[in-house]
Amino acid sequence: MSTHDASIPPSSSLSSSPSSFPSSSGLHQAPAPEAFRVEADATQGFWHKGPRDTLPPPDMLGPYSRHRPRVPPVPGRKAWIIGSGIAGMAAAFYLIRDGGMKGEDITLLDTLDIAGGSLDGSGNAEQGYLIRGGREMNWNYDNFWDLFQDVQALELPPGYSVLDEYRQVNDHDPNWSKARLMHRQGEIRDFSTLGLSRAHQLEIVKLLLKRKEDLDDVTIEDFFSSSFLETNFWFLWRSMFAFENWHSLLEVKLYMHRFLDAIDGLTDMSALVFPKYNQWDSFVVPLMRHLQSHGVKVQWATRAYDLDLVELGSQKTVTGIRCKVQGQDQRLAVGPHDVVFALTGSMTEGTAYGDMDTVPVLQRGNEEPGEDSDWLLWKNLSLKSPVFGKPKKFYGNVAGSMWESATLTCRPSPLVDRLKALSVNDPYSGKTVTGGIITFTDSNWVLSFTCNRQPHFPDQPKDVLVLWVYALLMDKDGNNVKKPMPQCTGREVLAELCYHLGIVDQVDAVAAQTKVRLSLMPYITAQFMPRAAGDRPDVVPQGCTNLALMGQFVETRNDIIFTMECSVRTARIGVYTLLGIPKQVPDISPTQYDIRNLLKGARALNNNEPFPGERLLHRLLGKSYFAHILPPLPDKDETLKERAEAELATLLGKGSQALGVAAQWLERAREGLQRKGR
């Protein structure tokens, strides 16, 4: 059966088809049969409740969406999952929880000998710890938390989930930063506002209003002015999410919608939540324990590089997986009822490592990743059919997708002393330290560093701190070390950090107490490269009957990439589609439409000052039921009427007839609301 026959949702949840409305007799017409759309898209049109529209709307998630439809088991069905990162593990989780499959019928294949993919965390205090990257987290990652509310917590007693554990940590230790931006070798730069002029604000509003379809292959620097790219907003945004100026403007737009609810907490990072430990211990360990307790199998040292496809008409069915196992070619047969889930591309593929005295040596070419690459599977699929997208758009420019990180294992030194002065709490207290990255705005590398809650590893000694450092620009000489970061040893990267912290004269004392491990990643922002419609394949490409693609390089409609939420979402869509589970994977949280978020976002973009028209809203709604949605004004009550009328004059023009009419209407509307409220 075609996946598109099996998958698919009544929903028209967003249609305005006549059969959803009352007929002339006053009775609903019978709903026409429709395929079930697993992947919700709340932007397709106006949502209304008709007889075939399931509740809640596709971007609303709550306990009512926790139902588990009954799915008849398919005898003999097995699942093959290529990649044991968060996407692959999520696919296994949903196959078991919602698909009713047995764990022993599910096999994960991985090139490495350890699960987690890009979610890593390794090392020790003696050789130095290693974290290639980190993830900012949001409360409305609805798919991610749907998964982890059913996974046993790492440290809490049985019955408590990873979500329970996560909330306890963040509810009792809120995140914020007191030194988010720095410059001039140790000075904290004023980051109290986003630093946007009226022209810059208009640029953001224009981008938010643009249709996604109009932004194919447009870059950030194609759209924004050069002065915008020097604002506090852009330093905060690009350093938090790792955007380069030549990356996709479409992805920046999607990020702005996704994080609109957090924009007033962007400056001090109070909108973010972080795990207790590194991402591998916090998420990979408990999830893998969960899967293995259900009997899921893992086959290591297995690089899948191609899939055998049989085409019958428009349908494409996987019959075999071509792979190298321990370096030897093998073909894994895929049965007629089996399903296959494959990761496309890899952000951390080809990482080159260095240390205190060793420079990382990159092995990957700028245009082709080579035959021993995790990109090879997607590349070979793309040669079979255009429905599999264009991987070279993403892997074909290493210079544009590369950056480097450094993990610092620190014992007491002048660096730790400086860190204490920049931290929210004592670094050894177990509570929030820097509250996220601190970015040096005058760094030629755009250098940032962070110290998360300590210990960052469960086995970390009490006198050791783990810091993480990264830079965005790989082709610029440092301010202190006169060479690009990829040409530097760990000792030189440490010297550059000390320079920007104002302690370069103490670098020898710091180096004596610090171990540095470097990670140069050629594809770490490949998912942000400029793209157009069709460059990324759908989760279940058109015509595929038993194949789903997952991860950061597949089409996600309205969601963003470079998140664990995206990995879980794509895996979940694949599972529900291939198994014919009649349940929608929710669209992103509707917080972008919430009037409260729009109002506070407008205030934040206007540098925390009342935005144009805000006083008019206060004049209209200030004594109504809806007064509480309005941000407080700095004005006294007796001046509100005059200021509101001044705003009208600014908007409509002094002396215009429209001004008088609008002022009268505003006053009548306000009085009417007051009368209704009595």
TrEMBL record:
Residues 7-25 have a biased composition (Low complexity). SUPFAM superfamilies: FAD/NAD(P)-binding domain. Transmembrane segments: none annotated. GO terms for biological process: fatty acid metabolic process. GO terms for molecular function: FAD binding; oleate hydratase activity. Residues 1-70 are annotated as: Disordered. This is 67 kDa myosin-cross-reactive antigen family protein. It comes from Roseateles depolymerans.
